[in-house]
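If your schedule permits, I should be very grateful for your opinion on a structural question. Kindly check, if you would, that the fold set down in the tokens agrees with what the sequence suggests. Thank you for your consideration; the sequence and its tokens are set out here:
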Amino acid sequence: MQILIINPPAANKIKYIREGRCEQRLSSFQYTMPPISLLSIAGLMEREKFEVKILDCISEELDFADIKREINAFAPALIIINISTATYYSDLEIVKLIRDITSCHITAIGVHVSVLPEIVLKESLLDSTIIGEPELTCLKLAKAIEKKSSLKEIEAVSFKDDGKIIHNPRISFMEDLDKLPFPARHLVKNKNYILPLINRPYTLIISSRGCPYECIFCTARQYYGNKIRLRNSKGIADEAVEVIHKFNIKDIVMWSDTFTLVRSNILEICDEIKKRNLKFNWMCNSRVDKVDEVLLKEMKEAGCSGISYGVESGVQAILDKAKKAITLKQIEDAFKWTHQAKIQTLAHVIFGLPGETKSTIKITLNFVKKINPDFAQFYCAIPFPGTELYSLSEENGWLITDDWSRFELNQAVVNTPGLSAKDLAKARKQAFLSFYLRPLYLTRRVLPKMVFSNWAHFLRQSKNFLNSWIES
């Protein structure tokens, strides 16, 4: 049986990342992300002897005409489409166009369809949706379609049946992630996934899933659950060997909600990398309360070149309301220790969380400059469906729109008591300019190789670059 997996085309020529809780448009500075969930699904399907193709329309810049040609040539019995909140309407339009040319079963994965399956199935021509972690459920769905059997026994599927919508509950998550085969990287053009600044191909390796924390803005728990599930160090190292030698990729992102959540596991991974003398650069996400000086030193020795931390705010009261469960002291310590370990840092900052005002934004910006990350990303607080922030926004009448296409991290969609959406959008833009246009920062980190006729030209070109990044 043939299975076609689609990362849909860019809507209005705006490219988006759709990968679990990571949903955002690409900017001048960001990078096209390998759709690791789609590759992981494909790897499992191939192991079970299904014939699989992947169309990553984002990285290959494909449109519907390309999808149509592939469907007509490949004749899939199952199409799996990746859907995100901000691209919801354009993704459903692609589903509609697909339905016009094939009667095969069409299902969808993603956070949005996981938390709103009833609405999605009513508003679309999808036959089903996958709830949460997609690999095993997609496999069970494929087997049921192949055998023409009922979908009523497949956990974590919502589907249409004679005009009715049936929701099969999610009972459990996959306990042993090492039972998944390696992602089917041979099905995509790996040269298309390039890290910015260093201009080298990279990939993701899934290192763990699940998050026990309760941040009110995050969709991680809805998609992968609240129980941490770890891959073992041998499996991660084996996959790194394949990535390095088979695909000639030397830059890897350890893909997890919080890579350093279990310290002993990270030390084992570092030991395995060093024991095998594997030479590659890798990056990860972390929490500031889940690192220490010794751990960071070990990570650096094993090839860690960058860590991104969720800072969110420089105001303790806002962190507490957001249920972030960290302190400002922990943030300062983590950045200090990471700098000392000579690992680059990225600070993720969210403006507009409950309690935010113009004054607190200034405090946060000053705090971010104080901890001095190598890079910083400033986002608007977006109440994605399924989060506590969404419930709060609905209950308090903060939402200024119900247009899902505006639910992306560079747009303001809430008016809170202390801050209007208009002021939030303005503050975000000013924060980028204020952080990156510091003369010392610019001359040392951002544009060291560019040639300028004078200082005014330097600042003007730098501002134009940042404006394109902010607006895109």
Summary: The first strand starts at residue 2 and ends at 7. Residues 195-436 form a domain with the TIM Barrel fold (CATH 3.20.20.70). The chain has two domains: 2-163, 195-436.
